[in-house]
Amino acid sequence: MTHSPPRPRYALLLNGSNFACEVLRELQRQGHSPDLLVLPEYPPAIITTPALIEQARPQGLSRFADDIEIAYAPRAQQAQLGQRLQQFKFDFLLVACWPYLIEQGVVDSVTCGALNLHPSMLPGYRGVDPIGAQLKAGETRPGVSLHLLSQVFDEGDILAQSELSAQPIPGNRSSLERACARLGGRLFIEALSGYDSGWQPIPQSESILAM
Known about the structure:
alpha/beta, seven-stranded mixed β-sheet
């Protein structure tokens, strides 16, 4: 009898943005739910302990994440987050909208790789609001980049990158966020499937947009 390999364990770091929540929903639709959701701050009513806690689910996530463990990791508690990921032997870490730079200790706490989903064709539209920047610029080739985390925002080597194939390009924020999130979720799943064959990340200077 053959046994399929165990499913990779991963933690998803996200805030409450539409893009982040849509990434989660796409991963669930594809049968690849995260094992842990990590949010950057405590809900206002429960700042009562310096430890990571799992309670008081944000209302926006409760609709479709009731069966996933949630932890909170404010900026000052990155060491505790890294210890937790290492203790429970997480394979991957995926970030989808996070308000502060993730320390190298957290990146190193997972056994396989730490990745970020960025809703643009990097190196174009780095920064905190790539969706808004693309809409303002009238970008005709929006897409998503999956890149390795680095110690500079949005500058890690690119693992996968794809333009939106839908035509016409969504002209409003919510539709563009949703389309990019769904594409990003699929890019991450493909990356998980290809890990054993060997990832081949490339510097952003050699990315599709830079060519």
